[in-house]
Amino acid sequence: MDHTASSVPVQRTEPAAGVWHGARDTLPMLVGAAPFGVIFGTLASTAGLPTWATMMMSLVVFGGSSQFVAVTLLASGASIPVIIATTFIVNLRHALYSATLMPHVQGIPKPLRACMAWFLTDETFAIVYHKIDSGEPVRIASYYMGSAAAMYSNWQFWTAVGIVIGQSVPGIAGWGLEFAMVATFVGIVVPLLKSRSQVAAALSAGAVAMLANGLPYKLGLMAAAFAGIAVGMAVATTEGKQS
Length: 243
Prior knowledge:
By secondary structure, this protein is mainly alpha-helical. The protein has 13 helices and no strands.
């Protein structure tokens, strides 16, 4: 009896990660975003924003940081141009995310890419970029949309919870629940720091963000981003020359 065929090991190719994997890998981020969504719904409710307007903001804008800024400025009586300009500055970081992902999504049809761009968040970017960087097989569009769908539904649910709590539990905005989001962002950034240039960029951006925190219209965020880019590129260039 010929045992040659049975002695050859069977080569199994791991299936590329898709929608379910994207949603599953995003679960830790959902936990961190939950208190953030609750606080937004609470603040919007206590600031006098109607329930329907608060939910529409989460459904249409879908940007935690910019929504917080918008609600804060609305409550202080800021003009519409100021609100638009400030939220635009806050969300400029997404241009950096898009530039990073662009080489990996060029083969995806433009309508789908436009949809992916609208769903882009810090958490989805981190999850997708980490998967790409790991070298594991992945269907980019499916994996991305799985993560985005999980983040989107999670944000709507906790916004609604925040509205209910804001109307029934006074003073919840002062409980410090936003710390969970800070911890989440730390968890997003640290695993991605794998070189000297990346560490230098993160440290310099963090330092500038703290020093420039008092600048109006969240300009400190842009200053931090530019500082991080400049320092990171400088260190990377120096490392390249030395090698």
